[in-house]
Amino acid sequence: MNTPSSVHLAKLRETLLMMSSLADRNLNLALKSLVERDSKLAETVEAEDSQLDQLEVSVDEQVIAHMALHAPVATDCRFMLVASKISNNLERIGDQAVSIARRAKELNGEPLLKPLIDIPRMGDIALNMLRDSITSFVYGKPEITAEIIKRDKIVDEINRQLARELTSYMMEDPSTITRALNLLLVSRCLERVADHTKNIAEEVYYLYQAKDIRHATV
Asked: What is the pTM of this model?
């Protein structure tokens, strides 16, 4: 039999899954708008971002309401703490998707500076990190956290490599500066997305293992 408390927690979990689905969709659309040079997709990302903002507020309201009404036990308290942090990271992923979409709109109006290889690769890694961190949350698989953290380091390295390459473009040909800077910003956004997905994975680990690994190696 479902208790009012369990129903409330189920609704909170559902809201988080809605957020994760929307963050995934917006990030994917932002990347497609850049790779396919389709600014209409970028506009869709900008228009839908407010939904993530509203869902983040809803999560916090549900957490506060549950704590006030149900005198939650320790495990429920841990779930609510993690839920609030996951929603915050998902909202920030949405913000990064908007930033990528805006950079894409600018880049789409200019000739392609270089073949887009590293950025789509970063995007694929970040998207899969997000999907795996949510899978970990839904199915209770904290053991995959270490693997997600390893992929974050790969994204960091690609970001550094791309920064070096684009800096060389700007030094050799000042006419490339605007396009190179926009690509640098996209790369930096994806590096931050990977950071946020790593944060989600670490929160999931804490949820199921009751161990904080944010500043330690799994």
From this structure: 0.93
